[in-house]
Design goal:
two-stranded antiparallel sheet, single chain, 171 residues, 27% strand, six-stranded mixed beta sheet, alpha/beta, globular
Length: 171
């Protein structure tokens, strides 16, 4: 991928930004969208299974998938997917509520604001982890919505741009 923190988005391009909490499956979903074959994997001493790109996938992963509670995506990354029908520009963003530090979260918000407040056009895939919808008073959902309000400057602007969002519930 191309590090989006060092690029200036083009105003003639529509970007699809993946937004969600750390661990919500943004990078996994991105690899799935481009056609990678996915498989369940297990790690030693961990009862949970995880989804990753199969070693036999005809389409190779374009972004490394993290399998912990700490984001694998450190900076916004720009990925271009082209085939004979599509030319898509994705921005895979670091997760919200990352557990590294508050400084890291502030740094990521500043990066997001810089990118989204450019003259570029954006569509948003908002990924919400299904298991988090019913726990902890929906803190993860609130955090993602708070991030969107920060990006757009006000709740009214989020509502005015409601057709720019697709919400995906992951498992």
């Amino acid at each position: 991928g191309i590090n989006a923190a060092t690029i200036i988005p083009s105003k003639n391009t529509v970007y699809i930004a993946l937004i969600g909490q750390t661990g919500s499956g943004k990078t996994t979903f991105l690899n799935y969208l481009i056609g990678c074959t996915m498989t369940k994997i297990k790690f030693e001493n961990n009862p949970r299974s995880f989804i990753d790109v199969s070693k036999d996938s005809a389409i190779k992963k374009i972004a490394a998938i993290g399998h912990g509670r700490t984001s694998k995506t450190l900076l916004p990354e720009h990925f271009i997917y082209k085939d004979k029908y599509l030319n898509l520009n994705f921005l895979d963003l670091p997760g919200t509520m990352d557990n590294r530090s508050s400084e890291f979260n502030i740094f990521n918000m500043v990066n997001k604001l810089r990118i989204f407040r450019s003259e570029s056009k954006f569509k948003f895939l908002v990924l919400l982890e299904g298991s988090k919808l019913l726990t902890n008073r929906m803190e993860g959902v609130k955090e993602v919505l708070y991030n969107l309000v920060e990006v757009f400057d006000s709740p009214e602007k989020v509502i005015n741009n409601k057709y720019s969002f697709l919400i995906v519930i992951t498992n």
